[in-house]
C-alpha cells in the first residue's frame, strides 16, 4: 500500500469510529442539562439547591428567587434528586454538605424546605437523565 492509501484507510477508520461512538450513546455529562421549578404547596421555593446524584457523581444547582433552577453538567442516567434548604445541616448517608446554598437566589425570606427532601432516602424523587435538556419540575409539600 502507498502512504496515501494508508492515510485514507486511517481517516475512514477514524471517522467511522467517531460515528459509532456518537450513535451508541457515549456522551459526556456536560451534555446533560436539567431545568425546572421547585414549588412547595404551589409556592415557588426561593432559595436552596437541587442535587442530582448517582453512585459516582453529584451535581447541584441553586434555586433562584422565582423557584427555577438549571443544572448544566448533571450526571447522565439514573439519579436521586434531593432539595436542600438554604439552611440545611450537613446530611448523613454519604451526601456531603452543600455550602453557600441559596447564594444565587439570594432570598431575604427563604421559603422553608422540609428536611425530608434533603436526603435521598426520604426525598421520594429520582429520574433518568438523558443527553440534552431534561425538564424536571419538583413539587414539594410542607407536610
Explain what the structure shows.
The chain has 143 residues and is of the alpha+beta class. The chain has a single domain, classed as Immunoglobulin-like (Sandwich), CATH 2.60.40. Helix content is 17%, strand content 32%. The strands form 2 sheets. Strands 1, 2, 5, 8 and 9 form a 5-stranded mixed beta sheet that branches.
Please, how many helices?
2
| Low-confidence sequence ranges | 17-29, 96-105
**Helix-strand category:** alpha+beta
CATH architecture verdict: Sandwich
- Give the DSSP E fraction (strand runs of 2 or more residues): 25-35%
Order of helices and strands: HEEEEEEHEEE
Overall number of domains = 1
Alpha-carbon distance between the termini? 74 Å
Average of per-residue pLDDT values: 78
CATH topology: Immunoglobulin-like
The oligomerization state is single chain
Radius of gyration: 20 Å
CATH class: Mainly Beta
| Count of individual beta strands | 9
CATH-level-4 superfamily name: Carboxypeptidase-like, regulatory domain
Biggest β-sheet strands, sense, barrel: 5 strands, mixed
Amino acid at each position: 500500500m502507498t502512504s496515501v492509501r494508508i492515510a485514507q484507510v486511517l481517516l475512514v477508520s477514524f471517522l467511522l469510529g467517531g460515528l459509532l461512538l456518537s450513535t451508541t450513546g457515549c456522551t459526556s455529562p456536560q451534555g446533560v442539562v436539567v431545568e425546572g421549578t421547585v414549588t412547595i404547596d404551589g409556592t415557588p421555593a426561593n432559595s436552596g439547591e437541587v442535587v442530582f446524584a448517582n453512585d459516582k457523581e453529584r451535581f447541584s444547582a441553586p434555586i433562584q428567587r422565582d423557584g427555577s433552577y438549571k443544572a448544566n453538567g448533571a450526571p447522565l442516567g439514573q439519579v436521586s434528586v434531593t432539595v436542600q434548604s438554604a439552611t440545611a445541616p450537613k446530611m448523613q448517608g454519604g451526601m456531603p454538605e452543600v455550602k453557600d446554598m441559596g447564594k444565587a437566589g439570594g432570598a431575604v425570606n427563604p421559603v422553608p424546605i422540609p428536611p425530608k427532601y434533603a436526603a435521598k432516602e426520604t426525598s421520594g424523587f429520582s429520574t433518568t437523565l438523558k443527553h440534552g435538556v431534561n425538564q424536571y419540575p419538583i413539587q414539594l409539600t410542607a407536610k
